[in-house]
Design goal:
Layout: H1 8-15, H2 20-24, H3 32-40, E1 43-50, E2 53-60, E3 67-70, E4 73-77, H4 86-93, E5 96-102, E6 109-119, H5 122-126, E7 138-149, H6 152-157, H7 174-181, H8 189-201
Antiparallel strand pairs: 1-2, 1-5, 3-4, 4-7, 5-6, 6-7
C-alpha cells in the first residue's frame, strides 16, 4: 500500500538531522579547491526550469572550457548542438540554474546553484573560439551556492570502473532510437552510417 510523504515535518522525521559536514561544505563562492574541480572538469549537467517544464542538458569540452572569471562568476560557451535550445529558453523565463560537474576518475562531484544570463558580446564569444569557430552565446553564471557531493552515488554506480562499461552494440543504436521515437520519420540505418563522419565535423 502506498504511503506518500505529504509534509516537511514527516519528511524530516523520516530522515533525521543532516550530517554536520553536509552543511559546512556549502558556501556562497568558490574556494580554491572548488575552483580546481571546475577547471579539471570536462563535463557537467545544466539544470533549468521554464514555463514548459524542466531540462537537464549535458555540456562537455576540454577541461577548463568552463572559465572561472572570479569566485562568484562562471563563463560557459554554448557549443554547437541541435538548436532545440531548451536550456536557453528556460533561462530567459527563469534565470535559476543548477550545475553538476564531474571529473573522470573522481568519485566526488561538484554542485553549483546560481543565476544565468545569455551574453552575445562578440569579444566574449570570440574568446571561446575553437578552430576559428566561436559560440553564438556565452552563459554568465552568478554563483549563489557551491558544494561538493560525496562519493556514494558514483561508487554504487561504478561509473569509472572499466569492468562496468556496457558494450555499445548491446543496446539500440542512435539511428534505431530515433526511428522508434519518430515512428520511422527520422533515423534508421542511413542515419547510423553517417553519424561517425558527421559528428566530428559538427563539434564546434
Amino acid at each position: 500500500m502506498s504511503r506518500p510523504i505529504t509534509d516537511l515535518a514527516a519528511l524530516e522525521s523520516l530522515y533525521g538531522e543532516p550530517v554536520a559536514a553536509s552543511i559546512a561544505k556549502e558556501v556562497p563562492a568558490l574556494t580554491p579547491g572548488y575552483r580546481a574541480l571546475i577547471e579539471a572538469s570536462p563535463f557537467f549537467v545544466l539544470a533549468t526550469s521554464g514555463p514548459d517544464g524542466l531540462d537537464a542538458s549535458p555540456r562537455g569540452d576540454e577541461p577548463g572550457f568552463v572559465r572561472v572569471a572570479d569566485d562568484r562568476t562562471l563563463l560557459i560557451p554554448d557549443r554547437r548542438g541541435n538548436n532545440r535550445i531548451d536550456s536557453l529558453r528556460n533561462i530567459l523565463a527563469d534565470p535559476r540554474v543548477g550545475l553538476l560537474f564531474l571529473v573522470p576518475g573522481l568519485n566526488e562531484t561538484l554542485r553549483v546553484n546560481g543565476r544565468a544570463v545569455i551574453d552575445t558580446d562578440p569579444a566574449l564569444c570570440d574568446s571561446f573560439a575553437v578552430d576559428g569557430k566561436a559560440p553564438k552565446s556565452v552563459l554568465v553564471v552568478t554563483i549563489e551556492t557551491v558544494f561538493f557531493q560525496c562519493a556514494r552515488a558514483l561508487l554504487r554506480s561504478r561509473l569509472w570502473d572499466p569492468a562496468a562499461q556496457v558494450p555499445r552494440a548491446s543496446l539500440p543504436s542512435v539511428g534505431s532510437l530515433l526511428a522508434e521515437a519518430s515512428a520511422g520519420r527520422e533515423g534508421g540505418d542511413a542515419y547510423d552510417r553517417s553519424l561517425a563522419e558527421r559528428i566530428p565535423k559538427s563539434l564546434y
